[in-house]
Amino acid sequence: MTNSLRPHPRTEAPPAPLPADGVPSPRPGTGAPAGTAPARVPGARPAGQRDAFFDNAKYLAIVLVAVGHVWEPLTDQSRTAEALYMVVYTFHMPAFIVISGYFSRGFDGSPKRIRRLVTGVAVPYIVFETAYSLFKRWADDDPAHPVSLLDPWYLTWFLVALFVWRLTTPLWRTVRWPLPIALAVAVLASVSPDIGDDLDLQRVLQFLPFFVAGLCMRPEHFRQVRRRAARVLSVPVFAAALALAYWAAPRMNSAWFYHRDSAQELGAPWWAGVVMTLALFGCSMVLTACFFAWVPGRTTWFTVLGAGTLYGYLLHGFLIKGSRFWDWYEPAWLHRPLGEVLVTLLAAALVTALCTPPVQRVFRFAMEPRMEWAFKRDAADPARERVGAKGPTAV
After folding, report:
1. How confident is the model at residue 394 (pLDDT cuts 50, 70, 90)?
2. How many structural domains comprise the chain?
3. Which CA distances in Å does 291 have to 5, 55, 64, 386?
């Protein structure tokens, strides 16, 4: 591991504050010197301005998450759909998690950070884990399905993982070789079938290296993958990935991409867990870099939706699961090329609508509750308020 991939808290720009929601949103950083135009690169933006690149990346990643979910029932009868599914699953969550790690660099365990972690991650987990469980009882006619906060169901695993990862951020910023250690943890998890399902720890541990990779990244790393040369190179890389996935589709168990089971639970020898964990990490990081290469850095019509990706992520799960419970995939025409394209477009439109500001306003009570009543007031707050009321002191 080179020094360029280690955290450098003293030489990089100050880490952006953590957002109120669970999925990181870029916050104001250090402004450009007076008289110069702000550089349009990640991590370098005028004060008060969100970074369009990360909002765009989050939106496009959540669209791919939704598209991947609607493709799953189509993969049994279409090798092409299976190949596309495997490619998307190689990088869509890793890209999301890398961004999460990048914007968690400022987590220091302070009371303010802990409050945000509770209100933006823990509370939405409790609300949506309960809501998903009750939905399954009703929609799937399964009254025995338990409401258990220890066994995340469907999409809520990400909130558990983000909570654990963010709590361990000070550790990863302290150790000398964070990424190799995180990879070693993931490898050990992949060969440990006794970990069990509590808190979906297999996913928490196997996806951990992507979060730590994000912690280790600096603005120049994003600058490098967004060069024209990287953008051009990403085209043959994606083409090769699709060709490889098309070959592997009938030969490989796609459950490897979920990172939720050990090698033994997938019917493979223990050493396959070591090989697949390292190989998939490499492939995922390469395709994630290719994905970032094509994310626009300018403000687009969907940039504003980047702030609502956690809303889209959690809310679209009800319709995805409902489509299985209510047999929406039974019509044969849905499994033909035109039907597959239509399903893809509908998924993209659905998750786009769920990321919009009106939806955010409706569900903010569950996703970003203020909850001042639940926390002790910071002793320094009255002093800050007095200073704010008097205004800045003249020099």
Report:
1. very low
2. 1
3. 19, 14, 11, 47
